[in-house]
Amino acid sequence: MTPAEMVFLAIASIASVVSLVARWTSKDSSGAQAPTIGALVAIAGLTIVATLRWIATGHPPIFGTYENSIASSIAVLCVVVWLDLRSVAAVTSWHTRLLAAWAPLTLAYGQFFASTRLPLTISERSLWVDLHVTFAWAAYAVLLSASMAGVARLIDPDENHHEMLDASIVRGIGMGFALFTGVIVVGSVYTHELFAEWFRWEIVEVFSAATWLAYGLALHARLISGWRGRRLAWLVIVVVPLLLCSFWSWSIYQNTYHFFDIVPVPAF
Amino acid sequence: MMARLARIADLVYHVVSSARVAAAVILAWILLLLVWIVPFVFYGIPGSRIQAIINREPFFIVVYVALIISTVACILPRSIRVVRRARRVVGRDTAPRFPSASTVVASAPDLARVANAVRRAGFHQAVIGEGWVWGVRNRWTGLGTLFFHASFLVIACAVGVVAYAGSGFTGEFVLTEGESALVDSDAYITMDGDGAPRQLDVGAVSIEPHFHEDVLLFTRLEATLETPSGLKRVSVGNPWHPDILTNVALTDFGWSLQVTGDASAGTTGTSVYDLKVFPSGTKDRFEINLGRDTYFVDVRVFGDYVDRDGQPGSRSFNADNPRVLISVWRAMSNGEDRLLIDNELLAPGDVVELVDATLRIDGVLTHGVFQVTHDPARAVVLFALFLGLLGTVVRLLFPRTELLIWQSDEQTHVHVRSDVYGRQAPIEARISSIIKRRG
């Protein structure tokens, strides 16, 4: 990590924490702009970090846990800002308070992994992979948002907020499911190019299949059976562990084609 | 009797097509994956065995069959409703039902101007009635549901047919730089599947592996192949498709040694040996007939050569500036082979003297391992995957959204509703602000 990268990462991390603290401490959402501004500063800082690495390595931040923690945090913060901009009340709502916490947590998690700048290995040098990862973090952020809306739906005592939270859950499941389908379809096409197989039943793909089915189930529960309120909220909360396993298990379990925290072995 | 049978059939159909049964089957699939497959994967069971469990174990087969039946039973009767809903537009003379919830604007501008504003907001199909404007955007995207479920059925059937009929073929062949071959069943080093081996007429112009700096990080593996349809560049993630059902992918590489033997009498000539000598320092052996003798040659290749205190070494994993460390035995008829050359370090062009013969190291070449896969379901599955993605994206990211604006008591009411996400207050607010500006 270069000094410039370190400075911008620190700025982004502090801004994301300030944004989070401002969300939790503001009592009234009217005129509370600090949380949104903090999130925007964090996005800008992380985008600069990603760009600096991209210039140095020739690829977007998709290689290894450290880079993916940056990409994931950008996606989560973008959803937070989008929610803020859609409704003034969202700025200090339980929904964005819970969701915004994931950005600094993820950035902190990324610090446990090597930040060495490495070029992409051959199997990752494809626009299919770039598209796959873009879909992946977008889907992750939106589905996480739906689940945090679920938690907020259960703990927010103000009944006036429940309708908005119900809408956020449904919209999150719907949009997230579409994006997750994109992740699986693009991944499947590229797996066939690489290995001539449509699906490899390794740990990330097994968890992904289970998670995709679970959100499909939630979508059917809403659209066909009319589930709403606390019942739907519980359903999207139960799926969170699966979501986390799908998107992060590769960073701790090495026996998968999605593991890219490569320890460079020198020539002798 | 017939009436009773009809009642039973109706009951069975009612159960099979119910949302509860569909949910139960999806849940069963999730549980099978989590309870059965996840522990096996963590335990390190090979991928081929996991694949076999998922393809052939009765529990999974029951789930697949139940899911296909449930999907067909669910989607067939609903598809008529879905098409009708997508076609639906409000007629000019049919007053729509005004909903109780709406965003209210305290002005009542001319409805023709409102309709124009509504069209500019994306509701292109706007109908003006007596005191109301109705509009719709993304009118047909409800059909995405049908596309998605149809794609699921097509994939399930196509993959199932290929998996159980065994009509596919996968094989590997090796080609060295400069070599051309008619690849047929004899040329494949591995073959799998019941389909006929794919014949290919192909030559390798170049094969270029490259590693990052001095570490084992593969950054390039690309071959230029000469094919009947011209030169093709093939890399790991970019296979050559001789036809839409066939992939030819470069999956691995190795180093080959080109040597020229010269003898005053008997066998002479140039040969290329594909060796397992990567990474640098790995030993392999080949046998060569020269003159009237047979020799065994032990080989180690050092790519990107560097002298490490008198010992051969490599600066990187690349093959530039290689050296070859060889030991040569002359094969004896009594089995006690005689060591002629012991660990001699040679550069390309160097010659070693053997008994009545010489051996010249011409150079280190690269060979590629190419995997050929003929998948009869490829085109169908690709089409179905994109159909499924298209269906999901249009249905869930661009849902059909209807707008209704009506006026009463010098007020304008705006109501926007998506068929997936319900009432759309932000769009109502946007339309309301447009009406305010114009009113």
Characteristic terms for this protein:
heterodimer; A: 268 residues; Four Helix Bundle (Hemerythrin (Met), subunit A); 2 domains; 10 helices; B: 439 residues; alpha+beta; 4 domains; six-stranded antiparallel sheet
SSE order and pairing:
The complex is a heterodimer of chains A (268) and B (439).
Chain A: H1 3-25, H2 34-57, H3 64-86, H4 94-100, H5 102-110, H6 127-155, H7 162-195, H8 203-223, H9 229-238, H10 240-248
Chain B: H1 2-16, H2 19-43, H3 47-56, H4 58-87, E1 103-105, H5 111-120, E2 125-128, E3 132-137, H6 144-165, E4 169-176, E5 180-183, E6 190-192, E7 200-211, E8 218-227, E9 230-235, E10 246-263, E11 269-274, E12 283-290, E13 293-302, E14 305-308, E15 311-314, E16 323-330, E17 338-346, E18 351-354, E19 357-374, H7 378-397, E20 401-408, E21 411-418, E22 422-423, H8 425-438
Antiparallel strand pairs in B: 1-21, 2-3, 3-20, 4-6, 4-19, 5-7, 7-8, 8-9, 10-11, 10-19, 12-13, 13-16, 14-15, 16-17, 18-19, 20-21, 21-22
Helix pairs in contact in B: 2-4, 4-6, 5-8, 6-7
What does this structure look like?
The complex is a heterodimer of chains A (268) and B (439). Chain A is mainly α and 268 residues long. Chain A folds into 2 domains: 1-119, Four Helix Bundle (Hemerythrin (Met), subunit A) (Up-down Bundle), CATH 1.20.120; 121-268, no CATH class. Chain A contains 10 helices and no strands. Chain A has helices spanning 3-25, 34-57, 64-86, 94-100, 102-110, 127-155, 162-195, 203-223, 229-238, 240-248. Chain A is flat, with a radius of gyration of 19 Å. The relative contact order of chain A is 0.11. Chain B is 33% helix and 37% strand. Chain B contains 8 helices and 22 strands. In chain B, the strands form 5 sheets. In chain B, strands 1, 2, 3, 20, 21 and 22 form a 6-stranded antiparallel beta sheet that branches. In chain B, strands 4, 6, 10, 11, 18 and 19 form a 6-stranded antiparallel beta sheet that branches. A 4-stranded antiparallel beta sheet of chain B has the order 5-7-8-9, with no helix packed on it. In chain B, a hairpin with a 2-residue loop joins strand 20 (401-408) and strand 21. In chain B, helix 2 crosses helix 4, helix 5 crosses helix 8 (425-438) and helix 6 (144-165) runs antiparallel to helix 7. The longest helix of chain B has 30 residues, at 58-87. Chain B is elongated and about 115 Å long. Chain B starts with a helix and ends with a helix. Chains A and B meet through helix 7 and helix 8 of A and helix 2, helix 3, strand 8, helix 7 and strand 22 of B.
